[in-house]
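I'd like us to work through together how a protein chain folds, taking it slowly. To get us started, please write out a protein record for me. Label the sequence line and the structure token line clearly, so we can match residues to local backbone shapes. Once you have written the record down, we can walk along the chain together.
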Amino acid sequence: MPDLASRARTLLRLQTDPRILVLANVWDVTSARVVAGTAGTGALATASHAIAASLGYEDGERIPLELHLDVVRRIAAAVELPVSVDMEAGYGDPGGTAARVIAAGAVGGNLEDALRPLDEAVAAVGEVLDAGRAAGIDFVLNARTDVVLLAPGDADRAALLEEAADRGRAFLAAGAAAVFVPGVVAAGDIAALVGALGRGRLSVLAVPGATPPVAELERLGVARVSTGPFAQRAALTALQDATAELLAGGVLPPGTRMLS
């Protein structure tokens, strides 16, 4: 069993360092080893959508938790780096799910608020952190709010950002290491949230063609940027493109490397 307390300290250090933490999300042992073997990678994060899709399930806690955790165990055992897990909304038991995630070898995770009433969402944050303390580690929680992501298209943007900031401050006060606000991609919105939460506290999703480059996110004061399902989609896009090239009478990409 790896030293989980040490891995947790490493993940927290990476997330609180002035340099932005870049996480290319993984979904199985092969993707985990490829990302872990890439120079500059300090930690791994799983993507619930990608894990579910790889096993034939839709996202949104439709994959059985034990099956999800089996993938996490395999990933954590295959690498030396700290692993953060997308716990979705906690499968109805945020503290219990966090305890099982830690037992599987992970030391951090995302938890969606699913737009629960704020007091319930804050209580869920506390349950997850309590599970970490019970296991003897400082679990690194990336508390997610879906205020922006699930808002209707005609919602007032300023009001959404204000609500996301209010929720984020409550999660930070409860002990979360960072606040994840998917749906926020514009530089101005990111800057506004950094201003409301503080530098090194905001986590964002890298969306192809929309999110600013990592260097700009770092300049803006973002703590962490992850790829979510887009890393898997990039891999599958390459697979489909290579397949189409072969079917058209061509060859596999000449630069293909032996990564597994």
In short: The chain has a mean pLDDT of 97.
